[in-house]
Amino acid sequence: MLDRxxxxxxxxxxxxxxxxxxxxxxxxxxxxxxxxxxGLLAAFVCVMLAYRELFxxxxxxEEAYTYMMVPLSMKxxxxxxxxxxxxxxxxxxxxxxxxxxxxxxxxxMWDWNMGFGSIGGHLLQFGSxxxxxxxxxxxxxxxxxYDKGQLMGLAVNLVLLPVQFLSFSIFVCAVYQLGAIMRHxxxxxxxxxxxxxxxxxxxxxxxxxxxxxxxxxxxxxxGDIATIFTAVIWIIxxxxxxxxxxxxxxxxxxxxxxxx
Length: 260
Description:
mainly alpha
């Protein structure tokens, strides 16, 4: 039944993901700094709306009857939502990665600004290994010196970037799902603004706290250098936290419905 749950939840994400891709396409056509930022913000809003529909409204809102009619276990419901959301996010990541690359090909230059073509050019330089070709291992922007070990760390981080993104996506989905469940348990009628603010604040603390903790540990061990440890820790910790919260969400809902 898990595959059925995934298909149901993937359809919920579909309408928002089309808007997400539309925002990226809009940004790609203009390739101007201010529109780049606005377009990426619009794409982010589309993702948040999809999360709200997927993890909250479809489970506790007016459309929740769909799940009551389909014989799905709480495990299938929660995992189906998480898998569908991560499939959509990885599709979005792939589209954004390719689009940045194409933008970099058009511009051929990069800097540290938020320009769309600049980001694309930066990724292209990372991917093509141009750091290796710079004399004495000195990068022109910022005069940062990389030895072979540092270059290897950069390469590993780049290759594992999709996995790191997936790990963080699992973590974000889990926080959103658990937050929606806690909000429903605290305030089933959705009449308390304080409860909503409290859950949102708690979710933001977790969303920011875990990456901040990982960053501190990474900085203590690796410093400013991108090492293989950097890639590993940014994969394992968010994914592990996300998996624990998804398991917690399943247990809480199973207990709630057993009590009912």
